[in-house]
Amino acid sequence: MTPNAASSGLSRRSFLASTAVATAAVAGGMPLLTACSDSGSGGSREGATSGKAADKLLPTYVASKVAEPDIPSKNGSSAGYTSKVDLAALATSVPARLGTGAPLEIMAPLWGTPPKPGCAYYTALDAAAGTEITWQNQDGNTYGEKLGAVLASSSIPDMVVVPSWELVGKISSAVTAKFMDLGPYLAGDKVKKYPNLAAIPSDSWRMSIFGGALRGIPMPAAPVPNIVPFYRKDVFDKKGYTVPTSADEFLGWAKEATSAKAKVWACGDMRWSAAGFFGVRPAGSLGWNIGSDGKLTYRIEHPEYLEHLEWVRKLFAAGVVHPDDKANTGDPSQRFTSGQILVYNNDMSSWYGKTAEQAHSQPDFEISGMDYFAAGGGSPTLYAGQPAGIWSMIRKDASKETVENALAAANFAAAPYGTKERMFVDYGVEGTHYTVENGAPVKNDRGIQEVNNAWVLLAAPAPYTAHPDLPDITRRQVEWQQRQGAFVRKTSTYGMNIVEPTRYATLSSQFEQLEIDFVRGNKKLSDLQQAISTWKSSGGDKLRDWYKELLDKNGSGN
Q: Which parts pass through the membrane (predicted)?
């Protein structure tokens, strides 16, 4: 995370795109089920829980009133805080330490260098929360391997962070077998002992039902787009470029803006943004939807899937994509900040990150987000993301004291913006990890190193965006989310925690590389068409039957 960004929520795209914590938003209540994959022996689907059955398992929702946002959430956006926070008058969301100080082991992924055990940040935070945590931080890039090995063993840490993208194969079935039902501690009004957890919206808790029980403590995630088509607004203004509003306009502008002689190309690989321009559904379970004709189809079966790739292929063929992007090497964000490319797609967190990064070396640097458009012009069709995608879970045989200490830690981590606890988690100790400059906290070198930690993965508040040092970036981010959110639709699988049967785990795995090769001209359209045909015959049609049965039984998410 960049030094002075404060945001809630995480997603795999965030980590893969920027290895940073990204802002997230949460949606209103929808029906949910949990469908665990078959284990290979019985082929059963455990815990299909939705509607009233799920409602009985959920914590009572009690919204936090600690700090009202300057920009309220709208159309699924995060809430925005643009006013200076009076650091001397921060509210308290945990008036009494809920932890007993008993030892607690937590395994979590971490991207970057983990803080040293016993560092000032960990010591101070444990003292404030009433915890004594031993962190087992694992490389986030290979976390699935470690998670699988740990869950297959007889020795599981007291608390484990489980990202949704690792819920494949035996890991998915192990979640129900190895982690406890938190209902006796959190269902209904029981959650009121932990007010910050009670303030997590119900939709995110619904996504935390595994095997018919509430097993996860969620991090809310956004239904609005998380990937932004960023452009160099400073260059656009200087050159007099008009921001494109259709696919043809984009290609025409790209040809005008590209000058290989001047070492300036229009863009990088635009596949992620093109999916939004052409109305392509997300990958994974969200790619399934029942259309107006009553038919259940997957994302790759629709014309817009091929159309968005053919358009990106045109960009490459026209020579408007940077040669290093064509070779798929290097860091596109560095090409963007150096002015070698003028448009690229990245996670929302880059809006603040790149602005802060370039503040001193390029004072005129200005990044902005291009609004999504329909390929032919007009309003786009965008699709909602799931309301939670990362959970912390407690091992099934944990003692009551261990559970209560784990929940105390999660409650502290879920403190809302504008509280002492949120300040502690995000910035550490004043004087040790940060100083206050012009009314805003600024991390020092020690803060940057130590406050890069997994505390934020234990739980998160209802999503917000706040950059005390760059409040205008907060406003622009939230307003961009609100504009895009007006065009977001939910697919039939929205709000459903679905883990597909293991036998289908690799069914779609070849498509990403095939897409990369196709847009660069290394594969033919017929190769894509054949892959789609093979997908259907080798399991896609049977997977459709599996989803149809699941939706017939539990209802649609839209």
A: none
Question: Residue 10: what pLDDT?
Answer: 40
Pick from 5, 499, 456, 466: which is nearest to 217 by CA?
456
CB within 8 A of 554, min separation 6: which ones? 31, 33, 48, 50, 51, 496
Task: Of 92, 100, 108, give the one whose Cα is nearest residue 131.
Answer: 100
How many CB atoms within 10 Å of residue 533? 11
Collapse the DSSP code of 376 into the 3-class scheme (helix H, G, I; strand E, B; otherwise coil) and give the result. coil
Closest CA to 412 of 136, 108, 158, 99: 99
Contacts of 420 (CB under 8 A, 6+ apart): 90, 91, 92, 93
The count of other CB atoms within 10 Å of the CB of residue 386 is: 27
Tokens encoding 323: 């040669």
Q: What is the pLDDT of residue 49?
A: 52
Per DSSP, 92 falls in state: -
Tokens found for residue 423: 């300040």
Assess contact for 433 and 450: CB atoms under 8 A.
Answer: yes
Helices vs strands, H then E, count in the chain: 22, 22
- Check: CB of residue 308 under 8 Å from CB of residue 274: yes
Closest CA to 104 of 69, 64, 132, 68: 132
Q: What pLDDT is recorded for position 74?
A: 95
For tokens 């003292």, what's the residue? Answer: 127
3-state secondary structure of 292: coil
The three-state (H, E, C) secondary structure of 113-178, written as one string: CCCCCCCHHHHHHHHHHCCEEEEEEEEHHHHHHHHHHHHHCCCCCCEEEEEHHHCCCHHHHHHHHH
What is the pLDDT at residue 50? Answer: 54
Spans of the chain below 70 pLDDT: 1-53
Token duo for residue 425: 């988690």
Are 272 and 227 contacting, i.e. CB atoms less than 8 angstroms apart?
A: yes
Pairing of strands 388-394, 217-220: antiparallel
Own/partner contacts of 432-436, CB < 8 Å, gap of 24 or more, are 432/120, 432/121, 432/124, 433/120, 433/121, 436/87
Neighbouring C-beta atoms of residue 64, cutoff 10 Å: 21
